[in-house]
Structure formats: structure tokens, C-alpha cells
Amino acid sequence: MATSGNGRGKLTADRRYGAPATASKAASGGGRPPRKPAPRKPRRQHGLIVGLIVGLWRLIWRVIWGITWRVTAVVAMVLGLTVFYFYSQLPPVTELLDGRARGSVTMLDRDGQVFAWRGETFGGQITAENVSRDLHNAVIATEDRRFYQHFGISPRGIAGAIRINLSQGRGPLSGNGGSTITQQVAKLLCLGVPYNPSEWKSEAEYEQDCRGGGVWRKIKEIPYAMAMEVKYSKSEILTIYLNRAYMGAGARGFEAAAQRYFGKSANQVGPAESAMLAGLLTAPSRFAPTNNLTRSQERAAVVIGLMEEQGYLTKAQADEARANPARLSPAAEARSGGAFADWVMESTPRFLSSATTEDVIIRTTLDQRLQKAAEEAVAFVFDTKVKEGSKAQAAVVVMSADGAVRAMVGGRQAAAAGSFNRATQAKRQTGSSFKPFAYAAAMDLGFTPADYVEDTPLTINIPGSGAWTPKNYDNQFKGMITLSQALAESRNIPAVRVSEAVGRDAVRRVANGFGIVSALADGPALALGASESSLLEMSGAYAGILNGGSSVTPYGLVELRLQGEEDVLMGASGGVGQRVISEEAAAYLTYMMSRVIENGTGTRAKIPGWQAAGKTGTTQAARDAWFLGFTADYVAGVWMGNDDNSPLTGVTGGGLPAEIWREVMVRVHQGLQPQPLPMLIPEPKLPPGGYASSPSVMADGQSPSAAPRQEYVPPPAEMPTQDIIIYDGPVPDTWVNEGPVEGDLAEQILRDVLGGFGN
Which enzyme class, named as a word (predicted)? Predict the structure, then answer.
């Protein structure tokens, strides 16, 4: 409060509020003049309509923003929870490397070399660190160049894929998917859903669903891929990919593919081979080098360009890889033993072959040199002696005398695994190639090749069917001839006489004993090959003749074990069995069959410098043509025919089949020293006088007295040439008379008769 009076100022009350600053500063006599406040801009005035529009826009924006951040928060929360869920479900990496539901079968030849695979093979675990650096780079360059930068998904890659799809007239998510390697691994793992046989018709259908595209699939892939990126390192994700990717030709993973195509490990492949393997990822079956090597090499050249562009290869390295493209290993290039491998699989229990859950190793009897020889022989004859456009097929079997199958050709052209195998699955009439079993029965009863048989008109009364009169293929008769000549010239009437003389039951017993397990005809046409059999059966039966008269069960499996195990689970189930005919009878029969090639119907099968024995066979209307025979080292059988059972044109067993047989055996015996056949040359005999039946002549159903057996002695020389008595009598007008045909039995007999003629 101020004071007053006595020199003091006037009493006044203190001011409750301060004076303006300017006044204070003025009273104090100094200071900067006060700054005038800036005039406020007047608020912009909108018209009514504009104001409504602006207000509405602001409201909409606030609503959109409010919804957006809330939805984003919800999506992020759901995504995070989904990623966490998948993360918690992911197993250790080691459990994801081999994702096959079934195992595989790897086949080794007689020398222990791999020649065939069945099922999906898994070559063993490899990692991103120990795989070839070229292969590592090829995969990254081809599939995901930003693999080490993204977090499981690549928005740039997806955008680029959508642009490409739209530019090519497809839907945005149809075709190119822009998937990262991590997303591809998510597909390979089927987003963690395991294969359940009860829910899927097949594993292929399950995998097809796992690889399916679409928006929903892409949405599910994102959290799974992100979970893997959290759970595993980049190296581990790439390791899963390298082990699980399907690489064509039944190979699962890059190690199996490298072994399958190049015969080496995935850590040994170079730039060209790596590029070819990486190129398979786009379309494994289409680009598999075993399907089309040229196409696979062209795809590899594209991959090499990507590797060069991204700095993984220098220009010089890329040029070198392009100039020397990868090629298949000899085993993969040959693709040998396809039909053989199928047969081994079929004859092995399913739980150890086609349905195995383990990786199985089977050591077999196959000889890849002989397999190649057989394939080349078939190709040579068809290329040089069969008219272009012919649909005729052929099959070949080569085996040792103990039944070990060394080569098998199931058709004139290489076919995919599981294709029709004409060597084992085709049951066809055997024609005259069956005749040796009738003569084998005679030899076992004590006859020799020097004994005689009548080649004269013959009529047999068949109860219930009437008279049956067989004919020879040349419509001629030769009178009294030796058994050796009868077989060499493949004469039908003598074969029927022999069969009727020794008894059809004896002929069936010999044929069954030698392994012909197919149903055999009941009538007299049995001797003429009216019954059906497979080439493998027939070849095995001829092997029984070569080995001295014991039965043979053809086999291809030597031993079976699990991969990595030493214990043998299964051994050979075939080989030499019980004796069927005497060794002497087999030696006599071998001699008779050698005459077929020397001066009979099989002269086109002669092998220069080698003794060989065999028999031709041609069925009615030339629907089937056969040649089977052997040397001292190998047995081989050849069949020709049409798959639709239509007649061949101008083909008999002594023609193209004999030539294929010769070409096969010439190649098979390269490098071997000729060995003599185990045959016995008979003592010559004089023919009986006249034309009447006698105890030493096999005529209408009369069994002659058994001649005393002779001890087996290796032949010192050839049997002397004998004069042949030719039958000049008249040919009856009714020389072909099947008799009354009625009922099912009659029809069967008629089929037997019509199917048995030929050489």
C-alpha cells in the first residue's frame, strides 16, 4: 500500500492486476517497443453445398481410417497367432528330409552295378552346406534369387507373377505363382497335413492337392512360410527343399536325381549338371533327361544364363557349360532291363517291392552287356528287314542253363516301367516250338534220333468229334523218315504219330516237368503246339534240355536286403530242379535240335563257328512266330507277333525270329570261346522194309518196343547221311477232315487243330 502526508505520497491501494507491458516499460523509461500481435486470418467461409461435401469427406475418411487400423490390428493379431500355431507344430528339420510314404527298390546287375530303380528313391540326406556350390547357386538363381533377403514371401515376386499372368491372358493367380523357396517347401510339406491312405485314393492325388493353387492356398501358405522362417534358418529351409523336391524318373531329392541321371553324388556335380538338375524343378517329368535329353539340355542352357546374369558364373564358365552340356550316365542312358526289372518286381512279394515302406536293394542276374546286345539285335532286324510302318512286336529272353535270366526285351521299343511285357505276360500258341517235348518223351522211353516214323496220311478218330486228319505245312508226305529228320523239317504228321505212340500223358508230363505250367491241350493237336505259353516259360523249358534234362525255374532275383543292412531277407527262388528226362535223352534231343539249324527249318539261325540247337515255331495263319535255341553257354528265345493277334505278313519261325535269334547270339557270344554242345550222335539204323507199320515204326497209336538204352558217350563224328524213302502214294481227297463239329468240346478241338499247324 502507498503512504501519504508529511512528504509522503498520496495513500492509494495496490493494483491487483499488472499494467500492460508496454506501460510498464514506458514508465521505466526504456526497452523495445511492444510487438503488435499478428492479425488472425479470418476463417474461410464455404458455401453450404461445399461445406456439406467437405464435412462428408472428413467423416468418411475418419471412418475408413478407423476401420483400417482396427482391421489391420485384427489381421496382424490373427496372423501372429497363426504363425505361432504353425511354429509350435513344426518338427525338427531332420524329420522333414524324407517325406516319402513308401520306400524304393534299387536293382543291381550281376556285377553289382545299379541298372534300375522302382518307386521313389531317396539318395540320402544332403544339406545346403555340403551340396555342390554350383548346384546351390543354380537352385537360387532359378527358383528364388532374393531367398536370403525376404521373410518367407516376396511381394515383388507375387506382383511380377500377377503381371505376367495377366499379360498372357490368364487369371492373376493362374500359372506363374511367384512363390519363394520357402513357400514351395510349404507346398512340399502340404502345410503340415500328413498323408493318410484312408482319406486319399492315392499318394499322387494327395500331392496334387498339396500343390494346388488358388487364393485360399496362397493365404494359408503365408503364415506357414513365415513360421518356417522363424523356426528354421535359411540353410535349413533350403536343405528341406533339396531333399524333398521331386526330380522326375522316380527320384526324390537332388541326391537321388544326381545318382539316377549322372551316377554321382549331388556334392560332385558341376555347372552343366547342376543347371540340368535345377531346370527339372519347373516340370520334373517333362524335363527329365531320361525322357528327352535334348529338351533337358535346352532347359539347362536357360538356367546357365540365369546363373551368369546373377554373377554365379563368369562368361567363360557359362560358355564352357553351354558348349559341354550334361549327359546321362551309361546306366541311365541305356535304361537297360526295363522289362526285366518289371518282371523281378512282379515276382517279388509286394511288401518287399511295389508296396515296400523301406528302401530295398535287390541283386539280380541281369548282364547289362547281354541286355544291350539283345536290344541292339531287335533294333537292327526291325530297322533293316521289317517294312516301315509295321506294327509287329517282338520279345527276347536270354538265360543261362540254370535259369538265371541275363537279358529280357519286352517289346521292340523301350517302354516306361509297368508297360506290357510280351516276354512274360503274353500267352500265345507255341506252334512247332512245342514239338521237342513230344520227342523228349520218346527219347526218354529209349528211342534214338535214328529210329523211324511214317510221314504218310494219318486219320485219328476222336471220340465225340469224329475223324481228324492233320497235314504237313508243305502239303507233302515223305514216307519213312528218321525222328531226327522229322524234327529238323518240322513235319506235323510224324510229330502226331510220336505223341500218340508214347502217349499224350507222357508228353504232358515232360512239358510240365520242364516248366510249361500253362493249360495243355487234351487232343492229338497237343504235339503241334495248340497250347499257349509265355516266352519265358518256353525259354526255361529249353534251358532244361541244355542242362541235361533237369527242370529249370527261371529267376532274376539273387538276393534282397534292406538298404544299409547286411542281412539277406530273401534269396534266389529259381534254378535247377528235379530231373525230367535222362541225360542221354537230353543229349539225343540236343542232337536232333542241332539238325534243325544245320539243315532244317532254322538254317537262318546259324552262328558261324558255334554249335547251336533250336526249334522254329509258327502258328495257324502266322499269328505267332517263334525261335528258341541254345549254345553251350546260353539259351535264347524269340517271339514275334501282333498285339491284336492279327496274322503276320510273310513271317515264319524260321524267318525273322531266327534272324533276330542269330543277331542276339552273335552279340552275346562276342569275346567267348566256342564250346561243343552236350549232344549224343546216334548209331545209324536202316529203315524198315515196305511201308507197313512194324514194332520199330511209330504209326497210328502203336507204341513200338523200347530200344535198349545206350551209354552216354561224347560224339566223335556226325551221323552219316541216310537215304530217305519218299512216299509217292495218292493223297486222299479227304486228307483234311475235322469230322462233325458240334458242342463246346468240338469247338475246342477245332481250335486246337487250326492252331497247331506250321513250322
Answer: transferase
